[in-house]
Every structure is written in structure tokens, then in C-alpha cells.
Specification:
Strand content: 25-35%
Largest sheet: 6 strands, mixed
Number of strands: 14
Order of helices and strands: EEEHEEEEHEHEEEEHHHHHEHHHEH
Distance between the termini: 11 Å
Structural class: alpha/beta
CATH topology of the largest domain: Hexokinase, domain 1
Helix content: 25-40%
CATH architecture of the largest domain: 3-Layer(aba) Sandwich
Shape: globular
Oligomer: single chain
Radius of gyration: 20 Å
CATH class of the largest domain: Alpha Beta
Strand order of the largest sheet: 9-14-13-10-11-12
């Protein structure tokens, strides 16, 4: 029987929503929209605006949300919305509503990706049905673990982005000393995010380690500062931006390696999120993989773990749709 499903990828910066018909396991999108999350007071008003496109009742819905979930309620970490699955179902007449962590949604979506949706950083030796790990920096740092169950991967949510940052060299020692008075507890998310890239740049330029050019300073005033740093770093126009991107990539690779070791992710590590595709050239430069593999006695094991970057920005939406389609 055909089903009409609603899928959502809800983050602190953007919210993606999609209505799709499911026929014999195939998805046929009917309507899809991107919203500026912060422009809406709450999720209910945003969803109400979107649901006007539904021509008939929705059978099931799944929302990947950027925050921890308890009893099917969630607070979006970097936004402030509180979403309750039961309340959404009651308000919009949807019998089956499921909230899952946004990186659990990404994890489910990975199974549906095509070869050209990913860019390999390290080929490794993938183990069939081996445990996988997924992480991604954007507004925050999301993480998840995937284990094989029956005929598909089951996603296990994680808040591993909030674990303690562990510096690996003198530059990173200095970065930790710089950030500790600002945040108290310095997690990887404080560094591996858009705001985190800006903080790395401010540390390097403010500490006199690298001098920022006037054009970059001006660009940071005129547009998103993280985007400006990325732009000037990728094309080599600003030495502080180049060094900031390299430090960001090294810390990113180290944390990806930490997650791979924790999960023993012989099935591969998938780097998703909004930032990685935009700086893929720098991630391929080598610093990310060197830090990923730099685990002392376990460096040989790390080299056998495949690592790739997910280039499809809708992987979380795809995963949420898959979960919605499985709800009875």
C-alpha cells in the first residue's frame, strides 16, 4: 500500500522538510523546502507553513533533530526549540511520529547514497557489515555509530561532540589555553563548528602566531566570518586563514580517529555535516588523514579503516524518510 511520509532534518541553522510517497520501497518526493530555523519562533509554526502542501493525510513522520532525545522530546541544542513527537502528531493528525538524533538520521541515509555522493580520503580495507561511524561539523558537531542488525544498519545516537578536547601538539595546547577562559569546558564542538573555525582564527591572529590580511578582516565584517576564513584559506590569500583551516582539519581528523577507535569502525568512517564538503580540498591535503591515523600503537589498524566525506547535503533527510517509511 502506498504511504505518504514526512521527513525532516532539523538543525540550528536550517531545517529541511520533505513530503514523499513511498511505493514498493521507492520514494517519490512531492514537496521539499528549506527553512531558516532561527527565523521561526518554534517548530510548530514552521511545520504548519509547510504542511499546507500536503494534499492528503500523512501516514508517518520522522524528524532528525540536532540534540538529545528523551521520551520523544528534544531541545535543539543551538536553537532553543522544544519538539515533542506526540504533540506534533496530535496537532497535525499524524498517527506515527518519530524523533531521532540528526546524526542517527545521517547514518540511516548513508545506506541510500550513491558512489558519487561520497569522496574517499582513505581507501582502507572495509569490513562487510562492519561497524560504521559518522560525524560532521556544521553549526555544531554531530556523531553517531551504525551497527548491522538483520538486513540493515541500526543507528545509535551519540553526543560525542561534547567530549573533552584533547590537544595533540603545541599549537593545540595553546588553543586550549585560549578557549578555556571563554568556555570553561572545552569540547570538540567548540572547535569543530563554524564558530569554532572563527575561534581558531582569532587564536592564531590574536596570539601573534599569524597576521591576518586587511582584505580578510574586511570580508569577515561583510559576510559570515567562517565562510570568509574558508574562502581566503582555500585559495591561499591569507596565511592566518590557511593555518586556521589546517589546524581545523587536523583536529577534525584526530576526533574522527577517536570515534573510529571507540566504535572500532571497520566498516568505515563517514564525515558529513555542512563544513566538510566546502573544504574538501583542504581535507584531501593530508592533515586530516595524518591526524586520523596518528594513534601510536594503533596507527596500523587506523590505516585499514576507510574514511570518506559525504557530499550529499540531504543525507539526513534521506535517512529520516527511510525511518518514516518503516513506521507502521
Amino acid at each position: 500500500m502506498d504511504k505518504l511520509v514526512l521527513a525532516g532534518d532539523i538543525g540550528g541553522t536550517k531545517t529541511l522538510l520533505q513530503l514523499a510517497e513511498v511505493q514498493d520501497g521507492a520514494f517519490h518526493p512531492i514537496c521539499e523546502r528549506r527553512f531558516d530555523s532561527a527565523a521561526h519562533h518554534d517548530f510548530s509554526s514552521l511545520l504548519g507553513e509547510f504542511m499546507r502542501a500536503a494534499a492528503r493525510p500523512v501516514d508517518a513522520a520522522c524528524f532528525g533533530v540536532a540534540g538529545p532525545i528523551h521520551d520523544q522530546s528534544a531541545k535543539i541544542t543551538n536553537l532553543g526549540w522544544i519538539i515533542n513527537g506526540g504533540a506534533v502528531g496530535a496537532e497535525f493528525g499524524i498517527a506515527n511520529v518519530r524523533l531521532i538524533n540528526d546524526f542517527a538520521a545521517v547514518g540511516y541515509g548513508i545506506e541510500a547514497l550513491h558512489e558519487d555522493d561520497v569522496v574517499p580520503l582513505q581507501a582502507g580495507e572495509p569490513e562487510l557489515r562492519g561497524t560504521r561511524a559518522v560525524l560532521g561539523a556544521g553549526t555544531g558537531l554531530g556523531e553517531g555509530i551504525l551497527v548491522w542488525q538483520g538486513d540493515h544498519y541500526q543507528a545509535l545516537p551519540s553526543e560525542g561532540g561534547h567530549v573533552d578536547f584533547a590537544p595533540a601538539d603545541e599549537d593545540q595546547d595553546g588553543l586550549l589555553r585560549y578557549l578555556r577562559p571563554i568556555f570553561g569546558h572545552v569540547s570538540y564542538e567548540r572547535i569543530l563548528s563554524g564558530d569554532g573555525l572563527v575561534k581558531i582564527f582569532e587564536y592564531l591572529s590574536g596570539s601573534g602566531l599569524e597576521a591576518a590580511t586587511v582584505p580578510l578582516r574586511q570580508a569577515m565584517l561583510e559576510k559570515d566570518p567562517a565562510a570568509a576564513i574558508s574562502e581566503f584559506g582555500l585559495d591561499g590569500r591569507d596565511p592566518a586563514a590557511v593555518r586556521a583551516l589546517d589546524l581545523f582539519a587536523a583536529i577534525y581528523g584526530a576526533q574522527a580517529g577517536n570515534l573510529a577507535l571507540t566504535a572500532l569502525a571497520r566498516g568505515g568512517v563517514y564525515v558529513a555535516g555542512g563544513i566538510a564538503p566546502k573544504i574538501i580540498a583542504r581535507l584531501k591535503h593530508g592533515g586530516f588523514v595524518r591526524a586520523f591515523n596518528g594513534k601510536g600503537r594503533f596507527s596500523g589498524l587506523m590505516q585499514r579503516i576507510p574514511v570518506c566525506v559525504v557530499m550529499n547535503p540531504e543525507v539526513g533527510l534521506i535517512g529520516a524518510a527511510l525511518v518514516a517509511s518503516r513506521l507502521s
